[in-house]
């Protein structure tokens, strides 16, 4: 990787009663779109606030463009942030809101108005400049907040759950808008989100955090298909985790014994018999057959849940394990998958992913 544009180096943050960020390292390239994900309280927003300079680290450093940010106040970093709550000023007009950061930089009135109008135009808000914030829709306010963040022409934009207050339709439109802006501006976006769909749609790489530590960094499809550990596998939601032990193996495949039976999984390196052999199989890689007497694991359909154009089928195996399987509507109908139906699960061993051994 070339010299990172943003480098988090053993970055650490302790509050009086909580260790929120635990010595994390992360390199972000110039122009990258990075999404930080993880359960509530894992330290995502704290990490973003540390980059912005809104909070001071208790250890480690942040470098932006090669320069240490130690002691550099937020207003000198030019790392604006967009929040879910937007934090727009209700007593200022739309154009005054957008021009506000330039006022802080002592840019002259005519010039800051001209630049604010330019950004409003760029975000599809031409003609709304003199309105009050209260006269705008949720999506329009979101655009004002983004225009205000970009008016100083930063090389980094920080976004903390910016779309979570919007309805589903608007969220998707704003995703497209953010994606377009990122492409056009070529600047670095660091985006905190709960929503896997947003991270997958937008990010070049995603960072998964848990309890103040980074668990995995990678392209969305790689984190999904090849989780680094059980936490990531379970966090990604559409994986099934099977805990097992290596029994033996040959030809790049390992034999794994588990409470559900014996399975083969591909292995990059051979592991000795007796080693941990936990593996995942993604929900969309599982084949279902009607009846419980075919080759594979037999189970019973517990229920179904819609996820867009597909459905997730929840299955309990005879051994008491729960599996989730993703199927298209027509497959659900062909198999008549209703609660209580007996089914057999199977998959191609090449699609199983052996979790790397903890060091
Ligand atoms: N000012 C503070 N003082 C004390 N503890 C704090 C402070 N700010 C955050 N924390 C704690 O640090 C931890 C991480 O908080 P953070 O806001 O980074 O989480 P998050 O991953 O962004 O969560 P969420 O998704 O809920 O916003 C939490 O346990 C939180 O309670």
Automatic annotation (TrEMBL):
<feature type="domain" description="ABC transporter">
    <location>
        <begin position="6"/>
        <end position="236"/>
    </location>
</feature>
<keyword id="KW-0547">Nucleotide-binding</keyword>
<keyword id="KW-0067">ATP-binding</keyword>
<keyword id="KW-0813">Transport</keyword>
<dbReference type="Pfam" id="PF00005">
    <property type="entry name" value="ABC_tran"/>
</dbReference>
<dbReference type="InterPro" id="IPR027417">
    <property type="entry name" value="P-loop_NTPase"/>
</dbReference>
<dbReference type="InterPro" id="IPR008995">
    <property type="entry name" value="Mo/tungstate-bd_C_term_dom"/>
</dbReference>
<dbReference type="InterPro" id="IPR017871">
    <property type="entry name" value="ABC_transporter-like_CS"/>
</dbReference>
<dbReference type="Pfam" id="PF08402">
    <property type="entry name" value="TOBE_2"/>
</dbReference>
<dbReference type="InterPro" id="IPR013611">
    <property type="entry name" value="Transp-assoc_OB_typ2"/>
</dbReference>
<dbReference type="InterPro" id="IPR050093">
    <property type="entry name" value="ABC_SmlMolc_Importer"/>
</dbReference>
<protein>
    <submittedName>
        <fullName>Spermidine/putrescine transport system ATP-binding protein</fullName>
    </submittedName>
</protein>
<dbReference type="InterPro" id="IPR003593">
    <property type="entry name" value="AAA+_ATPase"/>
</dbReference>
<comment type="similarity">
    <text>Belongs to the ABC transporter superfamily.</text>
</comment>
<dbReference type="InterPro" id="IPR003439">
    <property type="entry name" value="ABC_transporter-like_ATP-bd"/>
</dbReference>
<dbReference type="GO" id="GO:0005524">
    <property type="term" value="F:ATP binding"/>
</dbReference>
